Amino acid sequence: MTITQHNASSGVTWAPVAGPGVTRWTDRLDAAGENTPTPLQGLTVAVVGLGYVGLPTALGLLDAGATVLGVDISEQRLADIRSGNVDLLPAQHAALACTQNTGDFLLTTDVDTLPRADAVIVCVPTPVTEDYRPDLRALSAACATVVERAVPGQLIVLTSTSHVGTTRDLLLAPLAARGLAAERDVLVAFAPERIDPGNERHTPETTPRIVGGAGPVSSRAAAFVLRATASRIHQVPDPETAEMAKLWENIFRAVNIALANELSEACAHLGLAPVQVIDAAATKPYGFMPFYPGPGAGGHCIPCDPYYLLHQLPPGGPSAPVLSSAMTALRERPAQIAAQAADRLRADGRPLDGARVLVLGAAYKPGVSDMRESPALRLLALLAEQGADAHYSDCHVPRLTVEGRELRSVADPHEEVWDLVIVHTVHPGTDLGWLDAVPRVLDTRHRIRPATPAAVR
């Protein structure tokens, strides 16, 4: 895979004269009112990829009156959606259940349905490889499929986080090669997702959305379609600005998570409770945003997205030492936790080899079953490598595979004897009272059994 460098003026430019299909969009946009109850009524929107981003996006579009074609290559995923066996907020589960009684939500693996859509929204994952290189295989394949089936007058919106220039590389240039010019024949925009799975405080509908179109009509059309799925739309001049904005957001979080972990260990060394220190610092009304320690960084964004920028920076060009160090620290966090576990046991004269160790909570964050890039996977592997009898307990993750070994969640961990419990993820409603009877508890979040402040020498 090659990542090229772009600037706002590079790549494919749009044509100044709008064709009939694009004119149809301008007419609709000119006639649309800001307060239309169902602004997308009469539009068919295809959502390509029905994962943690695509499914909530589809539900938002349905609520705005659109007919939605939900396209995914996985029959199992479609079956899970039909049965409701998916991670969604309660309100989203209710909305999904309502779709069973209408003909407005078609779930299919048939990509030949795409030409029927007025708009196509691409929502596929952009992970990294085992050696932390951007993995664009899914995104490239999805974009190629969309480009191959694009028709004049269609709006195509990319939402997947990737390197700067992705929209031009994977959509604008291939479309132009087919004779479909942006702003003349088709409309193209980049609008990065901002979905926080399992978080009811930050739903898509209450979160602003960035839109960067290949031209003014593309921006207006994308904003019109997506405004029902966001609290407001923030338009930027081009796709590249929107692409970099999304990378910047998640790089900011990655660096601050690594910093919170680092400073929490310093606090603990000094006999201070890290969370108390952070909460005190957070009383400052400006210039500070609280980040809290944990077992590392997991999920679809923080452990992956920063590498899309790091691998785009050319040798001898601008460097990013702060970001590079932060990502190294996040990768090494599970090893640091495993070392602390060994130290905690060794202090009581017990070796890690042969010790019964429980990792409490394995999902990458509370309230979801998502195991992508979860630090628990690496942590369990490291504990096993050092001879520990390692187990996990997670009500959202009944089973998982760690380096080829299948593990089952311990259903009632309070009924078993543990030499050490490592608190990794605490799901809503989890009872932690039983930990009082455990001889050793290592809380990666520094919220249980806070350190007693001691004199600093």
TrEMBL record:
<dbReference type="InterPro" id="IPR036220">
    <property type="entry name" value="UDP-Glc/GDP-Man_DH_C_sf"/>
</dbReference>
<comment type="similarity">
    <text>Belongs to the UDP-glucose/GDP-mannose dehydrogenase family.</text>
</comment>
<dbReference type="InterPro" id="IPR014027">
    <property type="entry name" value="UDP-Glc/GDP-Man_DH_C"/>
</dbReference>
<dbReference type="InterPro" id="IPR001732">
    <property type="entry name" value="UDP-Glc/GDP-Man_DH_N"/>
</dbReference>
<dbReference type="Pfam" id="PF03720">
    <property type="entry name" value="UDPG_MGDP_dh_C"/>
</dbReference>
<dbReference type="InterPro" id="IPR008927">
    <property type="entry name" value="6-PGluconate_DH-like_C_sf"/>
</dbReference>
<protein>
    <submittedName>
        <fullName>Nucleotide sugar dehydrogenase</fullName>
    </submittedName>
</protein>
<dbReference type="InterPro" id="IPR036291">
    <property type="entry name" value="NAD(P)-bd_dom_sf"/>
</dbReference>
<dbReference type="InterPro" id="IPR014026">
    <property type="entry name" value="UDP-Glc/GDP-Man_DH_dimer"/>
</dbReference>
<keyword id="KW-0560">Oxidoreductase</keyword>
<keyword id="KW-0520">NAD</keyword>
<dbReference type="InterPro" id="IPR028359">
    <property type="entry name" value="UDP_ManNAc/GlcNAc_DH"/>
</dbReference>
<feature type="domain" description="UDP-glucose/GDP-mannose dehydrogenase C-terminal">
    <location>
        <begin position="358"/>
        <end position="450"/>
    </location>
</feature>
<dbReference type="Pfam" id="PF03721">
    <property type="entry name" value="UDPG_MGDP_dh_N"/>
</dbReference>
<dbReference type="Pfam" id="PF00984">
    <property type="entry name" value="UDPG_MGDP_dh"/>
</dbReference>
<dbReference type="InterPro" id="IPR017476">
    <property type="entry name" value="UDP-Glc/GDP-Man"/>
</dbReference>
